[in-house]
Design a protein that fits this description.
- The complex is a heterodimer of chains A (215) and B (234).
- Chain A has 215 residues and is mainly alpha-helical.
- Chain A has one domain (30-214).
- Chain A has ten helices and two strands; from the N terminus they run H-H-H-H-H-H-H-H-E-E-H-H.
- Chain A has helices at 4-11, 13-24, 35-41, 45-68, 78-100, 102-117, 119-127, 134-164, 175-179, 191-214, and strands at 166-167, 170-171.
- In chain A, strands 1-2 form a two-stranded antiparallel ribbon.
- In chain A, helix 4 packs across helix 6 and helix 5 packs across helix 7.
- The model of chain A has no long low-confidence stretch (mean pLDDT 83).
- The longest helix of chain B is centred in the N-terminal third of the chain and has 46 residues, at 3-48.
- The radius of gyration of chain B is 22 Å and the shape is globular.
- Chain B has a six-stranded antiparallel sheet with strand order 2-1-3-4-5-6.
- In chain B, helix 1 (3-48) crosses helix 2 (60-70).
- Chain B has 234 residues and is an alpha+beta fold.
- Classes of the chains: A mainly alpha (215), B alpha+beta (234).
- Chain A binds chain B through residues 40, 43, 72-74, 76-77, 80-81, 84-85, 88, 91-92, 95-96, 98-100, 102, 106, 110-111, 189-191, and chain B through 3-4, 6-7, 10-11, 14-15, 18, 21-22, 25-26, 29, 32-33, 36-37, 39-40, 142, 144-146, 149, 200.
Chain lengths: 215, 234
């Protein structure tokens, strides 16, 4: 039996928002947002993880800031304002990475620009932060970032395992597999492989969700 | 206040705030970033000359220690002579030399090549015979990740070790990046001067081949001296 406090937590709106973004309304598999970066960064688990964290940070804080400004922001320039906030946040993140985590920033350097154009960030800003209070917008941003990150890690797990026989850079396929004739799947290292995996994820999630609804 | 005027003032205020934040971050963090960049360059020189191996991360202090102990920067005159930093002229080119017991073991030249999307920066190190490649590293580029971006990976760079920039008759031929794997398409004669390319990154390979050739050509005067064993440590 789940204890009472957990049950109470499950009923809060924040929890529901997070749960939704993880599964029912997952940015990649349900909203089909953020696909381009999902293709690019999922060749390795390590880059996928860093990208997930960076994106979660950006979505959460940009949603927070835009939500704080939502009453003062003139509606006719709102897209420009949102993009400015997002771009500033991303550049700040890049500057800090280059100063304190240089190795990581080198891996991410091209993708940092991709975060600004990642539809998830603008999507949540327009779709949630503009009409919701700051704390819930922050949580929504976090949740969508985590939802995005979980799919990213799932795709990266398969791509790195099947494409290079490694996880986080550590070889996990035993040597005798290779000696027996096993080969790394080169397609998994390229974008088409990512497309296939993402497609399978979307299919899986839709199937599981519709089965749950039918019960 | 009218709606358009309000929008205008809001936009101006937003621009000011964003500009201040970005400028503050950029200037405040600049020293650290430059320090990291310098360290990265040092690490690349050390890797090119074979003093550190890939996959073994080293602490900052270790990199700096090895660099100051083993690497000396000299300047190369257009005639190929090595001079000290004080005697350098503006037209002289830098040379990063690995010293073992006061003699030159390997030397690294900085590579600045055009790439597909931007410049490619790295180091190419040669043995003291002036003909054999000791190592090749890339520390900055704007190539597509997964395609041209593979030039920064170990598998690409380690192909270069042992390749020759001069043919059997001593003529300068430089190194060519093949299109895809340098398999049967490359003749036996050209094999010591060819490295495997990256499939899907033919253009990056072409740009880099041209850039490497240009760089090595500008350093030919000093390489010739190395081949003739005419180099003196200033």
């Amino acid at each position: 039996m789940t204890p009472a406090p957990v049950q109470a937590l499950r009923k809060t709106r924040s929890y529901k928002a997070v749960a939704r973004a993880l599964w029912e309304a997952n940015p990649i598999s349900k909203q089909i947002l953020g696909i381009c970066s999902a293709l690019a960064v999922t060749v390795q688990l390590k880059t996928a993880l860093v990208m997930s964290i960076a994106l979660t940070f950006v979505v959460a804080f940009s949603s927070l800031i835009i939500s704080l400004m939502r009453r003062a922001m003139p509606r006719n320039i709102r897209i420009m304002v949102e993009v400015s906030v997002i771009a500033t946040l991303v550049i700040l993140a890049d500057e800090f990475l280059r100063a304190f985590l240089y190795d990581v920033s080198r891996q991410l350097s091209v993708f940092v620009g991709l975060i600004i154009t990642n539809c998830i960030v603008l999507g949540r800003a327009e779709g949630y932060a503009l009409s919701n209070p700051p704390w819930r917008s922050f949580v929504d941003g976090l949740a969508n970032g985590i939802g995005y990150g979980s799919v990213l890690m799932g795709v990266a797990f398969l791509r790195e395992l099947l494409g290079s026989g490694k996880l986080f850079g550590y070889p996990v396929i035993p040597a005798f597999f290779y000696e027996a004739g096993y080969l790394d799947n080169g397609l998994m290292r390229l974008a088409p492989g990512a497309f296939i995996i993402i497609g399978l994820f979307v299919w899986l999630e839709h199937t599981l969700l519709s089965r749950k609804k039918r019960r | 206040m009218s709606e358009p005027l309000r929008s205008f003032f809001f936009a101006v205020a937003l621009c000011v705030v964003c500009s201040v934040l970005l400028t503050a971050a950029s200037t405040g963090l600049q020293r650290r970033q430059e320090h990291n960049m310098r360290l990265e360059k040092q690490r690349n020189v050390l890797k090119a000359v074979g003093l550190i191996t890939a996959g073994k991360p080293l602490a900052e202090s270790q990199i700096e220690k090895i660099y100051t102990e083993k690497i000396k920067t000299f300047w190369v005159t257009p005639e190929g002579e090595l001079v000290d930093a004080q005697k350098r002229a503006d037209a002289d080119l830098p040379l990063y030399v690995r010293l073992e017991d006061q003699t030159i073991h390997t030397y690294a030249v900085p590579v600045e090549s055009d790439g597909l999307w931007g410049k490619i920066y790295g180091y190419l190190a040669l043995e003291k015979d002036g003909a054999t490649v000791a190592g090749f590293t890339v520390f900055q580029h704007s190539e597509t990740p997964g395609l041209g971006g593979e030039i920064e990976k170990e598998w690409f760079q380690k192909e270069w070790i042992g390749k020759k920039i001069v043919d059997k008759d001593g003529n300068f031929v430089s190194i060519r990046i093949a299109r895809g794997e340098a398999g049967e398409a490359v003749s036996e004669r050209m094999r010591p001067h060819t490295v495997d390319g990256i499939s899907g990154a033919t253009l990056t390979g072409r740009y880099l081949t041209a850039g490497i050739r240009e760089t090595l050509e500008s350093y030919e005067p000093v390489s010739i001296r190395f081949r003739k064993n005419m180099i003196g440590v200033p």
